[in-house]
Write a structure and sequence with these properties.
Layout: E1 11-20, H1 29-32, E2 33-44, E3 47-53, H2 54-57, E4 67-77, E5 79-85, H3 99-112, H4 117-133, E6 136-142, H5 147-159, E7 164-167, E8 169-170, H6 183-197, E9 203-209, H7 217-229, E10 234-239, H8 243-252, H9 259-265, E11 273-277, H10 283-292, E12 295-298, H11 300-305, H12 313-318, E13 322-325, H13 337-350, H14 357-371, E14 389-392, H15 398-404, H16 410-420, E15 426-431, E16 434-438
Parallel strand pairs: 1-4, 5-6, 6-7, 7-9, 8-9, 9-10, 10-11, 11-12, 12-13
Antiparallel strand pairs: 1-2, 2-3, 4-14, 14-15, 15-16
The structure holds zinc ion (ZN).
């Protein structure tokens, strides 16, 4: 399916509409946010054609244009998840461990099942449906070491015409034999998948060493070789999540200045690289993140679930690091970005930082698009952007309805969505202007 050739009839959507032009937390609050209490979003051929107040736009619309009326509901850009493991769908909510034990006890046996292509395809299809139910229209996804697991997630994403990023896990040591590749096989398999899927329709490939402890120097070199050959491909991995892990990396790479320095040494810090967690970085590491244009993916439900630590999200933003927010399912405890933002707010409270409601929602939309270098395509409703958007229902539960009725301020309503909302508030999810999910 070539989405660019699909012609759609223009459709106007009428609702309250909110999106961001920049980071509302960076001292430019008023100009960063655009909100229309009664707005029109005009979609043409899967792209945003126009956005504005209904009283001005409604009379300008050609008479035969259908108007889909969502009055009383809120339209926002599709949510973006910047770090998630689709193979861990069946092990979300596994009790009792911290990172390294959790990997051995739950993760590796679960990922071993992806040798079975039929299983991979079934999980991929469920996973995509679950994203859409949660209003997530783009995600950066880890598969497993099996090339077929990448085919499965890309095929499922393509069937829904989603802008998705994914890659084969590269892992050549410190994991069970049945999950290991080699530096050479991981290079060739990743390259073949990259050639097959990168930039096909809306899909993008991410070179994905799992994390430094499961890759030899030689494998990290091969990952960097691929990254140099394909500069517009992504790099996706984990760093500095757990203290025991950080100590282990220091033992495995005795020459390194820090955990992040291992990746830096091999040339893996660059634009379009995404590092999940970044909790235990030092000042020099943070400078390198900002200098190189790498992104830090903040995964608050995972970080509290595994007892990993508290990421200073506001501090990282202040240091001009590209910060993304992410669920990190299956260590993350929800597919929902609203619940993820709720936990993000609480983690910032615990370290004496304040994450404002609008800044939080910015992060899950335009902020994540920026962190992924996709803000020219997605993240807000500027004309020409790909029309991925969701419709939120502020009467989804009795409590939410009651609490919403007490305020008419959009900032307060967003905070209520974040604190009380989950998949139930997602009324509809649109991909390139086509409805991909609607709550019954
Ligand atoms: Zn992860």
């Amino acid at each position: 399916m070539d989405s660019s050739k699909k012609i759609q009839i223009p459709v106007a959507y009428r609702a309250s509409i909110l999106h961001f032009l920049s980071d509302p937390g960076a001292g430019n609050g008023a100009s960063a946010t655009e909100f229309f209490e009664d707005g029109i979003l005009l979609i043409e051929n899967g792209l945003v054609a126009e956005l504005g107040p209904a009283d001005k736009l409604v009379n300008k619309l050609p008479k035969d244009i259908p108007v889909k009326d969502y009055t009383g509901k809120l339209i926002i850009p599709g949510l973006i998840d910047a770090h998630i493991h689709y193979p861990q769908t069946d092990m979300i909510a596994s009790h009792g461990e911290q990172l390294l034990e959790w990997l051995n006890k739950y993760t590796f046996p679960t990922e071993g099942k992806f040798e079975d292509q039929e299983y991979a395809e079934e999980v991929a299809a469920f996973f995509i449906d679950e994203l859409l139910r949660n209003g997530i229209t783009t995600a950066l996804v880890l598969a497993t070491v099996h090339p077929g697991s990448v085919d499965a997630i890309f095929a499922a994403s393509m069937a829904r015409n989603m802008r998705m990023l994914a890659g084969k896990v590269m892992m050549d040591r410190n994991a069970p034999e049945y999950l290991l590749d080699t530096p050479e096989s991981s290079f060739h398999e990743s390259k073949a998948l990259l050639e097959k899927w990168h930039k096909v329709d809306r899909l993008l490939y991410a070179i994905t060493p799992r994390f430094a402890p499961t890759s030899t120097d030689e494998q990290l070199k091969q990952a960097a070789n691929l990254a140099k050959e394909y500069t517009d491909a992504y790099i996706h991995t984990h760093v500095a999540e757990n203290k025991k892990e950080v100590k282990w990396v220091a033992e495995l790479f005795p020459w390194s200045r820090s955990y992040l320095d291992v990746y830096d040494h091999f040339g893996l810090l660059r634009e379009r690289s995404v590092y999940a967690h970044c909790i235990h970085l030092d000042e020099q590491d943070r400078k390198r993140m900002a200098q190189t244009g790498a992104a830090a993916a903040f995964c608050p439900t995972s970080n509290t679930f595994l007892g990993s630590g508290l990421f200073n999200c506001v501090g990282a933003l202040d240091q001009d690091i590209r910060v993304a927010v992410a669920t990190d399912v299956g260590a993350g405890t929800s597919f929902g970005m609203l619940q993820t933002l709720s936990e993000a707010y609480k983690v910032q409270q615990l370290i004496g930082q304040k994450l404002s409601p609008l800044r939080a929602l910015f992060l899950a939309t335009l902020g994540n698009a920026r962190a992924l270098y996709l803000d020219d395509r997605i993240g807000n409703f500027l004309p020409g952007k790909e029309a991925d958007f969701i419709v939120l229902n502020d009467e989804a539960t009795p409590l939410i309805k009651r609490r919403m009725a007490v305020t008419d301020k959009i900032e307060e309503k967003i905070f209520i969505y974040i604190m009380l909302g989950d998949d139930r508030v997602v009324d509809s999810t649109y991909i390139m202007g086509e409805c991909a999910y609607r709550a019954i």
